[in-house]
Amino acid sequence: MADESPLSSEQFLGRTNERDLNEPLTDHAEGQLFLTEAFKIIVDEVLRKGTDVKHKVCEWKEPEELARLLDLELRETGEPQQKLLQRVRDVAKYSVKTSHPRFFNQQFAGMDYYSLAGRYLTETLNTNLFTYEVAPVFVLMETEVLRGLRQLVGWTEGDGIFCPGGSASNMYAMNLARYRLFPEAKSQGLYGLPRLAVFTSPESHYSVKKGAAFLGIGMDNVILVKVDDGGHMIPEDLDEKIELTKSQGAVPFLVSCTSGTTVQGAFDPLDRIADVCDKHKLWMHIDAAWGGSVLFSKQHRHLMKGADRANSVAWNPHKMLVAGLQCSALLLKDTTNLLKHCHSTRATYLFQQDKFYDVNLDIGDKSLQCSRKVDCLKLWLMWKAVGSAGLAERVDKAFVHVRYLVEQMKKRDGFHLLGEPEFVNVCFWFIPPSLRGKEGNADYQEKLAKVAPTIKERMMKQGTMMVGYQPLGNKVNFFRVIAFSPLISQKDLDFFLNEIERLGNDL
Amino acid sequence: MADESPLSSEQFLGRTNERDLNEPLTDHAEGQLFLTEAFKIIVDEVLRKGTDVKHKVCEWKEPEELARLLDLELRETGEPQQKLLQRVRDVAKYSVKTSHPRFFNQQFAGMDYYSLAGRYLTETLNTNLFTYEVAPVFVLMETEVLRGLRQLVGWTEGDGIFCPGGSASNMYAMNLARYRLFPEAKSQGLYGLPRLAVFTSPESHYSVKKGAAFLGIGMDNVILVKVDDGGHMIPEDLDEKIELTKSQGAVPFLVSCTSGTTVQGAFDPLDRIADVCDKHKLWMHIDAAWGGSVLFSKQHRHLMKGADRANSVAWNPHKMLVAGLQCSALLLKDTTNLLKHCHSTRATYLFQQDKFYDVNLDIGDKSLQCSRKVDCLKLWLMWKAVGSAGLAERVDKAFVHVRYLVEQMKKRDGFHLLGEPEFVNVCFWFIPPSLRGKEGNADYQEKLAKVAPTIKERMMKQGTMMVGYQPLGNKVNFFRVIAFSPLISQKDLDFFLNEIERLGNDL
Q1: What does the pLDDT read at residue B223?
Q2: Min Cα separation B246/chain A (Å)
Q3: Which end of chain B is more exposed for a tag (fewer CB within 10 A), N or C?
Q4: How many CA atoms lie within 13 A of B66 on its CB side?
Q5: Closest partner residue to A215 among B22, B215, B386, by Cβ?
Q6: In what order do the strands lie in the sheet with B251-258?
């Protein structure tokens, strides 16, 4: 080998200035050392400090200052290891700690160490879930995890796939429903078809509209069905809207129900919607991205009674089960290989038919993606670690916390619930002392609308906790506290209530 | 606190059977210990053994046996730590080692330790790239990384987004092009529109067709433009096909060129295609998922000459730059906020307009996804570590290896190239001794077609290396070796050639 022969000084100088491109560019020992040091920083900054209430949830910086602190610019030459480790530390420092017990902001709070180990393994193995050849373990594992989830829906057979998020899962369902009705749309497009219509409630996730736009169906053809005060779709109105739409010459093809709406956490009445879908022969899809996890709980699964009558269910274990972003399953009752028929293009360079193993194991053509990340391992390992019982416990715990929060809010002045929570979203206004008893004033709503944004700004700048707010319909800004993280205790809920008061009492 | 008061025996028994749901469900010390042990296993099994040529690339098992070995079933109760660590070891053991120097199978070979550290950090921080509020670091970082990539295309301004894979990036481009021409399609769908037509070559990625189907355009409206022998789109044929399509009453709106076709690695002639697009005022998209990385190399960037004239470029740094699955950027020349106009639905619960910071930093509504994974950090950290120069070196090294492979193949009997490689895909037939000189025989092609699958089966079962094969048009099965991993040396290429001979010489 060239390396063993003595080098001329010219060759030697050449080597020091420029690496020999015939040799590997990577020093594994150096790389593994770096990774180990980075791992220690991650554990310390994100997992130890980042989950400790003595540390901040976020270290707020204005964008200009943060950009300066991070020194984001990408340059011609590389940096030394110590500087890179400092960068790991900085990224951790200035990022929001979504696992912090006082991150109540969104539906991806919390964290699970088993899932995290699964995610590290997934990232390190770095494979693609399209053929048995490159992902033997994961082709089989995904099948098993989907089976386990389907079983909770109530299906002994069926199909499914993991998608890059709930929006994608909902869009897949829309495409499948369309294909079932008009398979020719795949090759010919929508030009020859009558106007297609989708039905959902105004409180459903915005991906239904995004999907209609992307799939060429059009957002105006997403017909919004009325909801009751609690935010549940009204089946009678659904039936009427379907009839009306038909009479206008359009073709209804999908009802997208929601199990756990984003803001209020409402569960649409599935059984009664299923009756309407049966009557009109429509595809019934359930967006259970947020609420699906109740299926683990014996005590709370009744919220999704009738789910087994649906054609498809979108369920994100990255939310309540804290499997980690992203983990979104689309579950199907279908046993006719609709997913494959609808999506396949049969690329011969990937899905060769003369392989030495059963080519039905090459599941990639079911997907719209070519490179598809492995999202099943983190859920599988976590499920193995805590069992179905442990996952049920997470769901039950969240309900216990919500009950406690609601009780406490009722005992305190200033906390005004939008309504009794059905799920684990607690929506409330904080009425500062200056506004109490002033409900009749003309500017009351206007003043109330400014309370949540002001409290939010203060909490962000102080970094003590995070919670979201939003308006809804004619209701002005209110807080929505999401308290399902398995990392939190009652003490964190007490802190939450005290902190809202501390930050808002002078408003 | 309740925990400090003495418990009655009943309470004590209650505690042992059932956890107090008011308290956290997670023991951080136990969790961090597990994660640390899992990390050691991952480093040892995947990064140390998995990149060592003394170990196998894959431990082949038949599906039934593998399922049994893995014990995939999900159960009611959890498992002890040691068993879970064994599961981590098993998943690693039976997974394909895509970082192994002898994994030549696909465009996601190789690995980078800096990127991997970034990926661990991303997974641990577990946030969502939709608002500045929850992802301050990453909102700024994504902007900077996209700017860096755009600069290489030749654009000083523009827009972009990271998508879950190249297929999604290509579909985004298709939707943007459609929206530019017919913004009303977003609300009204395609029903009132004339038939839309997309132009691409038969060697382009299958996601163009998948996208056309999904977006309601229809696969039949993907018009295939002729290619020359090397697999490059012929601009004259493009021009003719556009004219013909117009004359048939359809509306051409997008040309999807390819920089680095999947099989042969061909680069479409961008400058000449841009002329045709200019003439017909069509959106020019470049699917540079595979080939985009040549833009880093001074020596090879000429392959994409004219890229700056495109409207959009899809580029997957998870391929040649080994940023890790997934890392796919859609780059746009647009400065009119088209991405946001095209995709936004303005969900008030996420994108509140009365925030205390500049709401233009809330970039989530540009995306079709709601939860969008952070894909920029891994690329950013790696780029910081090795610099643009280091990434260029990876590209150049791959070309050096290809040159070597080609030279060696020409020196050996039995290796027959499809043609001179333009990029880093080396496509060749291995002609076993029994078939040499028999080209004239009637059953030659039929026999040759069986050679690659047989060699493939043998190498998989022995686990010595992995390389893909496929037919293409009227060309029977040939190998396609992808040798761009920064972890390989010339020795691995010699091994490759020897191993093909060893496995195929008796055929």
Answers
A1: 98
A2: 16
A3: N
A4: 23
A5: B215
A6: B159-163, B328-332, B312-315, B283-287, B251-258, B196-200, B222-224
Q: Which two tokens stand for residue A264?
A: 């209020």
> CA B443, B448, B454: angle at the middle one, nearest 5?
130
State the pLDDT at residue A180. 97
Residues 6+ apart with CB under 8 A from B415: B408, B409, B428, B429, B430, B431, B497, B500
Taking only the tens place, the pLDDT of each residue in A428-478 is 999 999 999 999 999 999 999 999 999 999 999 999 999 999 999 899 999
Domain boundary among A373, A406, A425: A373
Same domain for A341 and A430?
no
At A468, which CATH number?
3.90.1150.170
Give the domain-ending residue among A305, A340, A373: A373
Whether B450 maps to a domain, the answer reads: yes
- The alpha-carbon gap from A37 to the nearest alpha carbon of chain B, in Å, equals 9
Closest by Cβ to A190, choosing from B166, B190, B372: B190
How many Å apart are CA A427 and CA B33, to the nearest integer?
A: 37
A457 to chain B: closest CA residue: B356
Q: Tokens 């051409």 appear where?
A: B252
SS3 content of chain B, % helix, strand, coil (to 5): 50, 15, 40
Residue B76 distance to chain A (closest CA, Å) = 4
Scanning every residue of chain B, which has its alpha carbon at the shortest distance from the alpha carbon of A96?
Answer: B134
Give the span between the Cα atoms of B37 and B45, in whole angstroms: 12
Chain A hits for B137, Cβ within 8 Å: 66, 70, 91, 94-95
Interatomic CA distance for residues A116 and B38, integer angstroms: 10
Q: Are residues A414 and A355 in the same domain?
A: no
Pairwise CB contact (< 8 Å): A28 & B48 = yes
Q: What is the DSSP letter of A297?
A: -
Name B283's bridge partners: B254
User: Within a domain: residue B42?
Assistant: no
Are B423 and B483 in the same domain? Answer: yes
The predicted structure's pLDDT at residue B353:
87
Is A346 a domain residue?
yes
Q: Domain count of chain B?
A: 2
Pick from B23, B108, B137: CB nearest A91: B137
Q: Indicate whether B463 and B390 sit together in one domain.
A: yes
- Do the beta carbons of residue B292 and residue B259 sit within 8 Å? yes
Q: Note down the domain range covering A486.
A: 385-504
Indicate the residue of A216, A325, A400 with minimum beta-carbon distance to B21: A400
User: For residues A471 and B346, is the Cβ–Cβ distance under 8 A?
Assistant: no
Give the model confidence (pLDDT) of A204-233 as tens digits: 999 999 999 999 999 999 999 999 999 999
